[in-house]
Amino acid sequence: MTKYVYVGLLTGFALATFIGCARQETPVSTFFGTSYELATKAQLHNPNAGLNSGVPLGLTGTVADSTIKRYQNSFKTAPAETKTYSVVFEGMQKK
Questions:
Q1: How far apart are CA 13 and CA 19, in angstroms?
Q2: Which residue among 6, 61, 73, 89 is least crowded, i.e. fewest CB within 10 A of its CB?
Q3: CA dist 75 to 33, 69, 82, Å?
Q4: What are φ and ψ of residue 84, in 5° steps?
């Protein structure tokens, strides 16, 4: 009887190992390194791209100024208190 138990456990372990080692391609692994390759090719295509010292296109002066002021003023007040809960066997408790 114990011989069958050991054989069953060994077979189950071997099966679990083989299933765990079976690997399928994921979208991340399919495109891993693509951004690096594109950046490298862009630098090879136009190596002087960073030398353009012109004004970047974007927000106008007054809109950008008010946006920056609003962003800087957002740190003057304390952030809102967050509530955390922990799960215990008796139920929920507030920390």
A1: 10
A2: 89
A3: 37, 11, 17
A4: -115, 145
Cα–Cα distances in angstroms (integers) from residue 92 to residues 78, 80, 81, in the given order = 27, 22, 19
Distance CA 16, CA 10 (A): 10
Distance CA 41, CA 47 (A): 10
Residue 88 to residue 86: CA distance in whole angstroms: 6
Per-residue pLDDT of the chain (95 residues; tens, 9 = 90+): 788 888 888 898 888 887 767 777 777 778 888 989 998 898 888 888 778 766 667 777 788 888 888 888 888 888 788 888 877 766 555 65
Taking CA 67 as the corner, what is the angle to CA 63 and CA 73, rounded to the nearest 5 degrees? 145
**pTM here?**
0.32
